[in-house]
Specification:
homodimer, TIM Barrel, alpha+beta, nicotinate phosphoribosyltransferase, three-stranded parallel β-sheet
């Protein structure tokens, strides 16, 4: 019997096979394959290398990612009759019909891949993947392989740079689904930012498919959906250790008075709807209280409501988790929030203890997923050998010339395991 | 019996259903839905509006796109048992089990959508889509709808801006699949750049699924795979109107001598491999000869090879289509190429006639698909009404405050059908 993990893998494989059929490529791969086939060259042994010319984001490294997707794609590379009929309808009318019979029989059983490991630190102009096999087949693979590697590696590298900036302790949450290039862009982002060093994702499907820990509590819409304390139901909550439910709303109202006094705030500035939203959420999830506090005003309402509910939860021995700041000057607001927590901790030590870092989790959405400062990685797929003879592309732009022939990558380490130097094939060599 | 079109639609619908299951959303939608459900508020009638705050690319308009995907998503919105079990495993342990029973029974039959038409010109802060229905359900839809609208509208708008810049005559080819956010990012780009005004795509699967005309001929790898004229086989070609095949290679060699003389070029600069590649391709596709001419040097080799093969094709009454320039100074090169065509047209008028425009088709890849200058559209989904009462979000950043209540969009046209003015709900009103 299949285990749940195997089932997930099977789902994933099926989903990838359906997402990346061999038709997902540029049309010119087929016109070239035809020209090779027509000249009887389609089975000549050929080698392509996949690499990029510059590290992204002006940085000094990249992470290579997408290999497992590439392997699944190769395993499932087969044209259906429908695919072939479509190609017949769009290729020039003088295409020899036998070519379509040839396509129907194609698979990647004669293709070999040699690649650096998924998630490896890599550098510009180093071959990340060497694809060898029959000329027409390895040509057909170009666009699909680039599509599977380019964005995966880019977003993985972007995530790693966020991780380096955030340091090893702070937790990082990917939350860019809504700004990704459609559903699969979002899934790819969740998956490869996790490989790049993010701890969490907001994307539930990515959590399900890839086993990435998921996180999230509430949006502004939840807060703004409440307008009065009358909407809070039930209003009671049992203490954490058990026992009779007590009137939680009454308890919170009491704490709100203390908090306003303590922080020198005016009770009339508190939004009743925001207090109702926090109360209702805390009653639903007393062990997971982490509201968004900037739906109206952090200082005049959100922070006061949070502290009142949090202190009431503490009184019932629950542990509030923290607050979420969504926009505005996050640094300034986090200082304001920390100050309030310190003041409140005089009343309830555990509230302070659970908040001894100013910012524990950083969620990144748009900038992470769209890689704003450089939204594409320029991986290319270049022919380097045919029939054992090296091939190169010259160009009037010397940067775009290729280094002919197959390459091996060496990394020379000293006895301590530290990098001695790296041999990089460059145009200058 | 299903027609091919219906089959394609069915495939597309199935593919979308599998791509956008209701789990493809942020986890906090579920924690909020639970809190609503726990408080007995989940069936309260609520209204959300989807809009963006600023036109992208510093421009004056956007195109709204993604509506049909949203509607398919809503039609297929149902949780499987596996989805629900996954949610049970990640939501807090104190979640009431009856909530999962509630999720299992959910669909969008009680949800209404009112939207501007797909492809409509829209402006900032105008509601593009109004989603009304039970509070918990319309909350759950947020991320998926944003994911389906944001990138589609962005890339459609980007395409429209390219169209405006290119003018109405020049044909535009989308070719960004390899730099998109994975397979679906590429498909979405092909589909919505077509709506935005592109004529063609290189993406064969997009052609198949959406009926977009496809185009493409050859990459540099095809050219560099040849090194000698001995690799050309067959070397004969029958005239267009029929008749005995003639020695095409011999004919091309003759024309190459004329071309070099005509253009004052040195025959020894011509790359034998490039000539072989063009010859071989022309013999395979004599009616579709459009080679990439900058694999080595346009002036010293690629252009000479093209002219020789093209003139030989003309002699056999075939019509060569043109050349592709891939990189470098495209304007300078196009002038050089045009000059050569003019010179050659003295020998073969039809070559000139088919090239009376300097650049007929422009292919755009990375910049089009990744929307480099602004890689995301900031569509948001804001609660505007619950139980018939307006809701708003205030913010310390006035730009982020919402205008409460449902809105109607009016466009006032004069008797000529010209826009008189547009009523925009803005924060200033």
């Amino acid at each position: 019997m299949a285990t749940p993990l195997n089932e997930t893998c099977a789902t994933l494989e099926r989903s990838l096979r359906e997402r990346v059929p061999p038709l997902l490529t540029d049309l010119y791969q087929f016109t070239m394959a035809y020209a090779y086939w027509r000249a009887g060259r389609h089975n000549e042994p050929a080698v392509f290398e996949l690499f990029f010319r510059d590290n992204p984001f002006g940085g000094g490294f990249s992470l290579f990612a997408g290999l497992s997707d590439c392997l699944l794609f190769l395993l499932n590379f087969r044209f259906t009759s429908e695919d072939v009929e479509y190609l017949r309808s769009v290729l020039p009318v003088d295409t020899d019909p036998d070519f379509f019979t040839y396509l129907k029989g194609l698979d990647c059983s004669a293709v070999s891949i040699s690649a650096v490991a998924e998630g490896t630190v890599v550098f510009a102009r180093v071959p990340l993947m060497e694809v060898s096999g029959p000329l027409a087949v390895v040509q057909l693979l170009e666009t699909s392989l680039l599509c599977l590697v380019n964005y995966s590696s880019l977003v993985c590298t972007n995530a790693a740079r966020f991780r380096l900036a955030a340091g090893p302790e702070r937790r990082l949450l990917e939350m860019g689904l809504r700004r990704a290039q459609g559903p699969d862009g979002g899934l790819t982002a969740s998956r490869y930012t996790h490989i790049g060093g993010f701890d969490l994702t907001s994307n539930a499907l990515a959590g399900h498919l890839f086993g990435i820990p998921v996180a999230g509590t509430m949006a502004h819409s939840y807060v703004t959906s409440f307008s009065s304390l009358e909407e809070v139901w039930p209003q009671i909550l049992a203490p954490c250790g058990g026992g009779d439910p007590i009137d939680f709303m009454c308890l919170v109202k009491g704490w709100l008075g203390h908090v306003c006094q303590l922080l020198g705030a005016k009770p009339q500035g508190v939004r009743e709807g925001e207090l109702a939203a926090f109360l209702s959420y805390a009653i639903a999830y007393p062990r997971n209280f982490l509201p968004v506090i900037d739906s109206y005003s952090v200082g005049c309402s959100g922070l006061l409501c949070f502290c009142a509910v949090a202190l009431a939860l503490c009184e019932l021995k629950y542990q509030p988790l923290g607050v979420r700041l969504d926009s505005g000057d996050l640094c300034r607001q986090s200082v304001e929030v920390r100050h309030a927590f310190r003041e409140c901790s005089k009343r309830c030590r555990s509230l302070y203890l659970c908040q001894d870092n100013e910012i524990d989790v950083v969620g990144v959405g748009t900038h992470l997923v769209t890689c704003t400062s450089q939204p594409s990685l320029g991986c290319v797929y270049k022919l380097v050998e045919v029939c054992g003879r090296p091939r190169m592309k010259l160009s009037e732009d010397p940067e775009k010339s290729t280094l002919p022939g197959r390459k091996a990558i060496y990394r020379l380490l000293d006895t301590e395991g530290q990098a001695l130097f790296l041999i990089l094939p460059t145009a200058a060599l």
